[in-house]
Specification:
single chain, 190 residues, alpha/beta, seven-stranded mixed β-sheet, 12 strands, globular
């Protein structure tokens, strides 16, 4: 399947099925050692049929973790801003919910530690934890410029394929979680 077919299939999930599957995925994420050890959680606000993240955001906040959500900048970079409640997220670029763009809430390099996790969207993943995004490279650029040790991809099982073709700019996930499986990448066991 190609990117457009996967996005279309995701959109065709009923709202109830999407939430049911997303809840199963969220429940698996919070059992991960990477999540349990995390002090800071970078996490997207779902859009366009992606795995829903409100439950994960709320859980991370309840667990006392610092939560940051991304903003897509015109120069194709991501900036993350601290979030204290899901209701702070408002539609921004492309209709994607974004955090408040207040300078003192912006993620600083000093906020990123070995205990930081980034819960990452994508259109396709493979069992080796390679990821295909939406084609603009936002997350790959972010990972290239920031040392995020724990990159957690979340997806529906329909988004898992055999052997994605990747290039030197594609940054793999350390873990990919679906409603049925947890896949660990080559570098996740170190």
């Amino acid at each position: 399947m190609n990117r457009k077919e996967i996005i279309q299939n995701r959109r065709e999930l009923s709202a109830d099925e999407r939430i049911r599957l997303s809840d199963i995925i969220a429940d698996k994420v919070i059992t991960l050692k990477e999540y349990k050890a995390a002090d800071t959680v970078l996490i997207y606000a779902d859009y366009n049929g992606e795995v829903a993240t409100d439950k994960l955001i709320n859980r991370a906040l309840l667990d006392g973790k610092k939560v940051f959500a991304p903003v897509c900048e015109p120069d194709l970079t991501l900036e993350f801003y601290r979030v204290y409640a899901v209701d702070e997220l408002e539609p921004g670029a492309y209709g994607i919910r974004e955090p408040l763009r207040i300078d003192y809430l912006k993620l600083k390099d000093s906020d990123i530690t070995d205990k930081t996790i980034c819960i990452t969207p994508g259109t396709l993943f493979d069992r080796q934890c390679n990821r295909m995004g939406y084609g603009k490279g936002y997350y790959d650029r972010f990972f290239a410029g920031h040392e995020i040790k724990n990159r957690i991809g979340i997806a529906y099982k329909m988004q898992i394929t055999d052997g994605l073709e990747v290039n030197e700019y594609d940054v793999p996930m350390t873990v990919v979680v679906t409603e049925d499986d947890i896949f660990y990448g080559e570098y996740s066991r170190t």
